[in-house]
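Worked example 3 (structure in, sequence out).
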């Protein structure tokens, strides 16, 4: 299962209005730590399919959303529930950290 692709144009409909909790990985192609967590994000997308919407947002192509949420360093992963940010993970962290945060919102 591939992670969902969020963008400035679909963020409100796909992330903020989602029935499921949402995990958004703010990343960029040139970011080394982003590439380190990419396989983890893909694994989680498969493991939590149907329970959580997990996706990625390229900050170079979608600056409005990154600015709106104050994303200053990447990777930044936001945990959304009911359209609100309930948790934030900054930097490359182990899979266990993601699992702990996700399990809190489902």
């Amino acid at each position: 299962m591939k992670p969902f692709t969020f963008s400035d144009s679909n963020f409100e409909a796909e992330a903020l209005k989602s029935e499921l909790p949402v995990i958004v990985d703010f990343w960029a192609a040139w970011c080394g730590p982003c590439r380190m967590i990419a396989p983890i994000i893909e694994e989680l997308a498969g493991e939590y399919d149907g329970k959580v919407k997990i996706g990625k947002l390229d900050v170079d192509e979608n600056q409005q959303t990154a600015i709106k949420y104050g994303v200053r360093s990447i990777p930044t992963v936001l945990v959304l529930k009911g359209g609100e940010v309930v948790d934030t993970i900054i930097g490359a962290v182990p899979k266990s950290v993601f699992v702990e945060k996700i399990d809190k919102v489902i």
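Notes: The beta strands are 4-6, 22-27, 53-58, 76-81, 84-90. Residues 32-47 form the longest helix (16 residues).
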